[in-house]
Write a structure and sequence with these properties.
Distance between the termini: 44 Å
Oligomer: single chain
Bound molecules: aspartic acid
Number of helices: 16
Number of strands: 15
Largest sheet: 8 strands, mixed
Shape: globular
Length: about 450
């Protein structure tokens, strides 16, 4: 029988009621044999995620030498869940060990990982599935880099002998048993890694929304849900801020073409969004764009110099300056005499002056300036490479709204047009682009 790997996010693990619902979903389908979970997330908007509280514990230990108060809240949270579930689990003993080890290992990653660990212990008990510690099967190097190939073999051989298992998401361990974590939201990646290793035919990622929307519902009224999208489209949208799924989740499943299905724990009847390796001809012809996503907080380093494009090594010299100051950039549209480098503010902050001075020195531009307050909007869809005129629809929509385009870049795959606009125009621009492609 084929295997489905299921991953449940923080809201799905937030309290006993949600966890019962999770158990119900898993039991409905015998193919759902391997379960990956996040730490308990928020129960209501002002609530705290357990992972955030665990980072706070680490911080408390560094500053005050102890974290009694914050850990007390975490203890209450887990005890409450176990009491409400009425399962026979001595959660106090687990919490005692966790608390002690947090002092012993004294690492932010170890502390942060304990939410997933305890969450998995609880759901394994509820389901009667085997608990398999991620520390033993998700391998990291001592430098904290994830070792995908060795992990793949180890997970495959370990789980081959276990019919049903729960594995905590977000972390793993190195050869000396030190715990390392993925970046935030990384349980999505853990689920994908396990799906690949067990040869799953489906990776279900259960969250608290009905899948991807074609635009941010806080900006566009009732945007269309996306029933299906490709791995590539997902990468572009997720990277640009559509944060339903960790953008790195597709790498493991892409190797074996395993589709990812985003589902809603609190509305299991909805089909959600299916993410597949490729869309078929009909699907491609049905829509021009798949979705719009965007991010605020960018600056443009704008450089002008006559005959720039015939000056050998010009771009390399400019980029070497950024490398020297450890600044990574995101886009680099160039013209004959101009180039723009789009850089997140978080990368450039505090280094503006030195960067300008250095670039002046190495390439002697006719003009150089930094334009800040920029937002990027990505309009994504394979359909665009099939339909001539998509760029003009987009540009026309912005022109009609009198929104000035400060930068435009069409990804080489022709499935992504990125525009840079003033942040004050951000919401209006998204609405205008969305509307233009609805007809
Ligand atoms: N709990 C971790 C976080 O809040 C990882 C995850 O939920 O995927 O980032």
């Amino acid at each position: 029988m084929s295997i489905t790997v299921v991953k449940f996010g923080g809201t799905s693990m937030a309290d006993a009621k949600a966890i019962r619902q999770v158990a119900e979903i898993i039991k409905q389908d015998k193919k759902r044999r391997y379960v990956v979970v996040s730490a308990p997330g928020k129960r209501f908007s002002q609530d705290h995620k357990v992972t955030d509280m665990l980072y706070a514990c680490y911080h408390d230990i560094q500053i005050n030498g102890e974290c009694k108060n914050t850990f007390g809240k975490i203890r209450e949270r887990f005890k409450g869940i176990v009491d409400d579930l009425a399962i026979e689990l001595d959660i106090d003993s687990y919490l005692d060990v966790v608390e002690k080890e947090m002092y012993k290992f004294n690492s932010a990653e170890f502390c942060a990982s304990r939410g997933e660990y305890l969450s998995a212990v609880i759901i394994a008990k509820v389901l009667g599935y085997t608990f398999v510690d991620a520390k033993d099967i998700m391998l990291f190097t001592e430098n904290g880099e994830f070792d995908a190939e060795r992990t793949n073999e180890l997970v495959a051989s370990t789980l081959a002998n276990i019919q049903t298992a729960v594995v905590p998401g977000f972390y793993g361990g190195d050869e000396s048993g030190i715990v390392h974590t993925f970046s935030r939201g990384g349980s999505d990646v853990s689920g994908a890694v396990i799906a690949r290793a067990v040869g799953a035919s489906l990776y279900e990622n259960w969250t608290d929304v009905n899948g991807f929307m074609s635009a941010d519902p806080r900006i566009v009224d009732e945007p269309k849900p996306i029933a299906k999208l490709s791995y590539k489209e997902l990468r572009e949208l997720a990277y640009m801020g559509a944060n339903v799924l960790h953008p790195e989740s597709i790498f493991p499943v892409r190797v074996s073409n395993i589709p990812i299905n985003i589902r809603n724990t609190f509305c299991p009847s909805a089909d959600g969004t299916m993410i597949v390796s490729e869309l078929n001809e009909q699907e491609l012809s049905e829509r021009v764009i798949t979705g719009i996503a965007g991010k605020k907080g960018y600056s443009i380093v704008y450089i002008e110099k006559s005959m720039m494009n015939s000056e050998l090594g010009f771009v390399r010299k400019v980029l070497a300056v950024l490398e020297y100051y450890n600044i990574s950039f995101e886009h680099l549209p160039t013209g004959i005499d101009t180039m723009s480098i789009i850089i997140p503010d978080s990368e450039l902050a505090g280094k503006e002056e030195v960067v300008i001075e250095r670039i002046k020195k190495v390439v002697a531009p006719d003009h150089i300036e930094i334009k800040s307050g920029i937002s990027l909007i990505a309009t994504v869809g394979h359909g665009m490479s099939y339909k001539p005129g998509s760029a003009s629809t987009l540009i026309g929509a912005l022109a009609k709204e009198k929104i000035n385009i400060r930068m435009i870049d069409q990804g080489s795959s022709e499935m992504n047009i990125i525009v840079g606009i003033a942040t004050s125009d951000y919401e209006r621009a998204i609405r205008a682009i969305y509307k233009a492609f609805q007809n």
